[in-house]
Every structure is written in structure tokens, then in C-alpha cells.
Amino acid sequence: MANGVQGVHDIETRCFIDNKFVEAKETFAIHNPSNGELTARISQADVDLVDSAVDAAEAAGPAWAALDSSTRAECLNRLADLLIAHTQQFCWLEAISVGKVVTFYPAEIQWAANVLRYNAGLAREIHGETSMATAGFLNMTIRQPYGACGAICPWNGPLIAIALKAGPALVTGNTLILKPSEKSPLTALYMGKLIIDAGFPPGVFNIVPGHGRVTGAAIASHMRIRKLAFTGSTATGRIVKKLAAESNLKNVTLELGGKSPLIVFPDADLEETAAMAAFSIAYNSGQICIASSRVYVHESIIDKFVGLYVAQLKKAMGKAGDALNPTTTHAPQADALQYERIMAYIDGANKEGAKLVTGGKRIGVQGYFVEPTVFLNPGQSSTINREEVFGPVASVNTFVSEEEVLKLANDTEYGLYASVFTKDLNRALKFAKQLESGMVGVNCTSPTMPFDLPFGGSKQSGEGRECALQALHAWTETKTVMIKL
Ligand code: NAD
């Protein structure tokens, strides 16, 4: 078997607490999704280990928060450099745990490093306001860190998810207890060594692997964690928010699932639109929250568009194979559970009578590979049009009028990302305004996103925003100070 990474075989399986690696009493298994073989057994942080991480984070907090913010930024910049320097190692670890293909993953590592550096650059922007409106007073607000915070991450973009949380959390002076997904703990734990090398003091950045119902629940319900940032499914987000409310009413930000509409008008450049729409659902084998999984096409161009879209989708996914093989472009789904979920959605759509245009089957007998799959006009109320599949599966639906398609696109409880393709500026702006979504792409779609502007969802796709100054605000509390003159 060809191996696209060289000379790296280092797997860390222990929790990382107070800059030390710690064994847990229990372990859990992860498997290589390219072949189903056991990859490693990982420590599962229980309530006691989460408590130890909180102790360490609390102890480290005051000194970390008292540093000049540029000193905290230097640690983040060094960590970014170390991520890049260990690209080969990260590629290997992600390939054997969640099946990230080695030819594509360096771009995500670069992305994660950029997020850390961007947040380091915001170190001097942690500002409050002043007011002279009250006679005889000079009043002000200051933005202060929460202290020991929690972060719970998904597996589909492991290092990016970590960077999006750790960057703003740490530069603003918080300390962190971060739980990677049980599907993708290897890169997070390997990062432990780099956290030490980057100069983070003990206790500032702790990593506790484990399943959600054990480790995640211990974080979400912890009485001394005052802020929690969660990224994952809407169903889990609801549980986490409940645990937070029922414990100490900690501040929670939620980045949740999506069922993103992409609208194509006849005046759009159809070839370019089909390529972008296909890449959006092909990227990471459809395992991305902002994937354009609901495509709406004007009835006058439906046949032409479907032909272009299916061809581009097959091209974008390319060759299925071992994620370590440098010629592979089509990644496996992350694990058996994810694979079975996707196949159940395809089965359900077939049973509901949706017209299958392409795909629908497993590829090969080893590993968890799903053909790129397209259903045509399954019906607005069909499950495939309403629920997040998180795989290379899209529906293409026809529409007639602007009013109709706006209604169809907004007819969902999700609101993460929406796209409209048209050359008519008025129409583009009208849709940008009226689409019920945290992010709207005009003549572009996901994974396009600028990190210097907020990222997040409306409706049941989330609460709060990541990226940009809004992230600094999310990781700090406002205090109002009244000064009598
Ligand atoms: P998930 O909800 O299954 O798990 C997310 C995290 O929550 C994991 O770390 C998991 O261990 C933890 N968890 C599970 N049960 C828990 C519990 N009871 N208490 C505390 N923590 C618990 O999601 P996933 O399968 O890891 O990720 C895919 C989902 O994430 C998709 O819905 C996708 O759309 C969403 N996602 C959203 C964004 C975004 O920015 N909006 C980004 C990436 C992924």
C-alpha cells in the first residue's frame, strides 16, 4: 500500500492535563476507516480526570490572564508554527483515525495555523467602551476572561475546530479544558507535546479525550467551568445546553448542524455553479456542516444543470482508496457508525420514492466508502430534504419563481449557510437579505468562509458566533465600572 507520509509513527493515547500526559482508568477504541482495523485504544477522561483538568486550569488562570496579551499571542504563534512543522505527523494521525486523505489534509492544517495566528493578531483588540453621558462620572466597560472554560469539538475538521476555540479563548486570557471527538482524538493529543514546546504554562491548555456521554457530559455539567463552546450536531447541542443550564447556568455558544440550500437561477454561469455546488458536497466526503446539500434549480435549466452537476460531483470525489495513499481523493466516511447512518438515509430516500440520479451504493467491501449520490425532486417534506445526512448525498429540486424558492429554502429548522447563484444584483441582494441563514454566499458556496468575519448559524444551527471580534466577545465577560469624578 502506498503511504503518502514519511517517517512518523507516534501515537499519543493519554489525557493531557497540566502539561503532563496522564493515563485514564478506562480506554476506548478507534478504528481506521479505510480498512476497519484497530488503530489504537485511547484514555477516556472520567469525572475525576475532568476535575483534575479544571483544578489545573483554575490554578493557571490568574497568572495567564495577568500576562501582557502579546505574550499569550506569542504562544499561539509558536503553536501555529509547530502545527505546520508537524504536518506529516498530523496527516498520518488523521488518516488512520478519521480517514482524512493525506493529499488534502495539509490545507486544513494550514487553515488551523492561520486561525491561531489571526487570533494572536487580535491580542490588542480586547477592548471595552467608555461613556461620559452621566454628569460627574467617567464610566467604562472592561472585557475580562471567564477563567477555566470548556470546549467540545466534532471530528470532521479536528484541528480547525480546535483552533477556532483555542485561539480566541486563550488570547483573551482564559484557560481551557478541550475535549476532541472520540472519533478524532489522535491529533489533539499529539498537540500536547507542541503545547509544551510552544511555551504554554502548565494548566493553560488541557486536552481530555473521551466519549460525549462521559467526558463531554462531565465538562458540560461542571460546576466550576463558567463558559463552554460546543461544536457538533443539533441534537447534542440541545443536550449540552440542558446540562449547562441544569448545573451552573454556564455561558454556552453552539455551532451546530445544517441543511444548506443552494439556489441556481438561469442567468448564472451554469458550468462554474455546478462545479462549486459539487465541490461543496464532495469536500471531506460530505462530512461538513456547511455542505450545500439541498440544491434548488430553476425548471428551465434543470436537465442541463443535473448533467453538469453529476459529472462535476464524480470528478470532485475522484478515486476512493486508502486515506494514506497519495493518489486517493475520495475519503472514507469517518467510521462504521457514520457510514451506516448515511446508507440508512439513502435507503430511506429510495423507500420514500425519491428518484435516484446517481450513486446510492457502497464502494468496495473494505472501509466505509459511499458513492456520490444525487436524488431528484424527492419532495420538500422528504427526510432527505429535511435532515442532515453528513455524507456525499444531495437532493436537486426544481422551482419556478423567486417567491417559491425563497420559501422552500427557508423551510427548515436549520440556518447555517445558504447560497444564491445569479448575475442579477438586485435579486442577489434580496436573497442575501431574506435567506434565513447565518451565512450567505453570492455566486459562491461552502467551504468558502472568511475568518475575519463571524461564522455561525441561526435557528437550530447555532447560538453565538466564532471568528473575528465576535469570538473575542464570546470568550470574555463585560464588566461595567462607574468612576465618580
Ligand atoms: P456530535 O454531536 O455527535 O458530537 C460532537 C461532540 O459532542 C463530540 O465531541 C461528542 O463526543 C460530544 N458529545 C456527544 N454527546 C455528548 C453529551 N451527552 N454531552 C457532552 N458532549 C457530548 O457531532 P459529530 O458527529 O462529532 O459532528 C458532526 C456534527 O457537527 C454535524 O451535525 C455537523 O453539522 C456539526 N458541525 C457543526 C459545525 C459548525 O461550525 N456549525 C462544524 C462542524 C461540525
TrEMBL record:
PROSITE patterns in alphabetical order: ALDEHYDE_DEHYDR_CYS, ALDEHYDE_DEHYDR_GLU
Alphabetical list of Gene3D superfamilies matching this protein: Aldehyde Dehydrogenase, Chain A, domain 1, Aldehyde Dehydrogenase, Chain A, domain 2
Lineage: Eukaryota, Fungi, Dikarya, Ascomycota, Pezizomycotina
One Pfam family per UniProt: Aldedh
GO terms, molecular function: aldehyde dehydrogenase (NAD+) activity
Domain Aldehyde dehydrogenase positions: 23-481
Protein name per the record: aldehyde dehydrogenase (NAD(+))
Family indicated by similarity: Belongs to the aldehyde dehydrogenase family.
Uppermost EC category: oxidoreductase
Domain of life of the source: Eukaryota
E.C. number: 1.2.1.3
Catalytic activity reported: an aldehyde + NAD(+) + H2O = a carboxylate + NADH + 2 H(+)
Active-site residues (renumbered): E255
Organism encoding this protein: Exophiala bonariae
Keywords: Oxidoreductase
PANTHER family per the UniProt record, alphabetical: ALDEHYDE DEHYDROGENASE-RELATED (PTHR11699)
InterPro entries named in the record: Ald_DH/histidinol_DH (IPR016161), Ald_DH_C (IPR016163), Ald_DH_CS_CYS (IPR016160), Ald_DH_CS_GLU (IPR029510), Ald_DH_N (IPR016162), Aldehyde_DH_dom (IPR015590)
